Automatic annotation (TrEMBL):
<protein>
    <recommendedName>
        <fullName>NYN domain-containing protein</fullName>
    </recommendedName>
</protein>
<dbReference type="GO" id="GO:0010468">
    <property type="term" value="P:regulation of gene expression"/>
</dbReference>
<dbReference type="InterPro" id="IPR024768">
    <property type="entry name" value="Marf1"/>
</dbReference>
<dbReference type="GO" id="GO:0005777">
    <property type="term" value="C:peroxisome"/>
</dbReference>
Length: 179
């Protein structure tokens, strides 16, 4: 892989219904501050999804996809992830990072498989999980970094690697015991 992953382009896909941005704050400010603290310097592109009208004026440059159905929004995010992977440099050509801010993702879904395949292919993947996250209720794909929601909002640190690995192990054990 050429280049430092922290210098590559960063794409953020954010479901505003799942994780509403507090009044007086902006997605770009929240994401920019936490990623800068982790050493990311690449250009950040953002796409938002939600069930109400676009809260961002056009000059902010944040495309917004409106739909009230959660299943539809997740499928649209999945399509956008696939399109992003086609438009992003292959990991051996340069670094690319995908950050997904959404919840209520079903285990054993294409969504989880696509994120895990991107990571396995060398893309940098970041995920945000709800506070009080339970690996038995909501699967988390294998990712490079994950934040708890409040920690992300406060500009805090991602989930420590040892805790994240424990969560991923519990998810894997739970998936094994489902059938």
């Amino acid at each position: 892989m050429t280049g430092d992953v922290n210098e590559g382009k960063i794409s953020v896909l954010w479901d505003l219904t799942d994780f509403p941005v507090p009044e007086g704050r902006g997605i770009r400010e929240i994401v920019g501050s936490v990623l800068a603290r982790k050493g990311y310097t690449g250009e950040i592109s953002i796409k938002a999804y939600g069930e109400t009208t676009n809260p961002y004026p056009p000059e902010e440059g944040i495309p917004f996809v409106l739909n009230s159905d959660k299943y539809w929004r997740l499928n649209r995010i999945l399509v956008d992830i696939c399109l992003w992977s086609l438009d992003s440099p292959a990991p051996y050509e340069g670094p690319s990072t995908l950050m997904v801010v959404a919840k209520n993702i079903e285990e054993r879904s294409e969504f989880v498989a696509v994120i895990q395949n991107l990571k396995a292919s060398g893309y940098n993947t970041i995920f945000v999980v709800p506070d009080g996250y339970s690996p038995y209720r909501v699967p988390i794909p294998k990712v490079n970094l994950a934040w708890y929601w409040e920690s992300l909002l406060e500009g805090g640190e991602p989930i420590p690697d040892s805790e994240l690995q424990g969560i991923l192990l519990r998810v894997k054990q739970h998936e094994t015991n489902v059938f």
